[in-house]
Amino acid sequence: MRKIKKGDDVVVITGKDKGRRGKVLRLVVGGRVVVEGINLVKKHQKPNPQKGVPGGIVEREMSIEASNLMLWNPVTKKGDRVGIKVREDGRRVRFFKSNGEAVDA
């Protein structure tokens, strides 16, 4: 089970976007994550009239290392470490280390 999943609210803890929050859009192979509005780069894109893609300089999100992110805890209003517990029924759930509250209800 991964500690960060698609749709999670995360905060960046290091790098040029330190302190910014965003939603996880997708996970990339190799422990990298694409986060909405984080790690924006300018890409020079050629036009493709068949697909209706205009040319020019476009901004897009690039992946960021998952170790540079923390899950956002809405109770403490900070980034928090995440652990994994096995419940009595055998289900594995993620929980915040600071208050022990489950991430996935």
The overall strand count is 10
Secondary-structure-based class equals mainly beta
At CATH level 2, the architecture of the domain at 9-74 is Roll
Average of the residue pLDDT scores: 93
By CATH, the topology of the domain at 9-74 is SH3 type barrels
Separation of the first and last Cα atoms = 16 Å
Main sheet properties: 6 strands, antiparallel
Proportion in helices: under 10%
Verbal overview:
With 105 residues, the protein is mostly beta strands. It has a domain at 9-74: Roll (SH3 type barrels). It is built from no helices and 10 strands. It has strands spanning 9-12, 21-28, 32-35, 40-45, 56-61, 64-65, 69-73, 78-80, 82-86, 92-96. The strands form 3 sheets. Strands 6-3-2-1-7-8 form a 6-stranded antiparallel β-sheet, with no helix packed on it. Strands 4-5 form a two-stranded antiparallel sheet. Strand 9 (82-86) and strand 10 form a beta hairpin. It is elongated, with a radius of gyration of 17 Å. The two termini are 16 Å apart. The model has no long low-confidence stretch (mean pLDDT 93).
